[in-house]
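Supplementary notes for students who missed Thursday's class. We covered one full example, reproduced here. Read the sequence, then the structure, then the short commentary at the end.
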Amino acid sequence: MHIDAYDFGRMVVDGETYTGDLILLPDDVLPDWRRRHGHTLLEDDLEEVFAAGPDLFVIGTGAYGRMTVPEETWEALQKAGIESVIEKTAKAVQAYNRLAEEGHHLAAAFHLTC
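Structure (token representation):
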């Protein structure tokens, strides 16, 4: 998968435009992703990611970094053997594309707005 473009509130993945937060799995896109607690990313929000078993997980925290990743979520990912990259969404997109080109088994979650 390749992210073609990202602008505030909009992402284009393999030519398809999305206007809500989304999760990218190794072989699927989960559009209109919602977290249970607004701008906080919890372990429970990532069931599909844990099931996919990626070696790397890229987290885009929004244009201004509003989405937070609590220590408990980070620890759950580490315990599952999933390395994480956490950046504001524009930088996370760059990281995702670079890691995908390197052939990593990736998943990602992107907050597209704030």
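Commentary. The chain is about 25% helix and 30% strand. The beta strands are 3-7, 10-13, 16-18, 22-25, 28-30, 56-60, 83-87, 106-110. If anything here is unclear, bring it to office hours.
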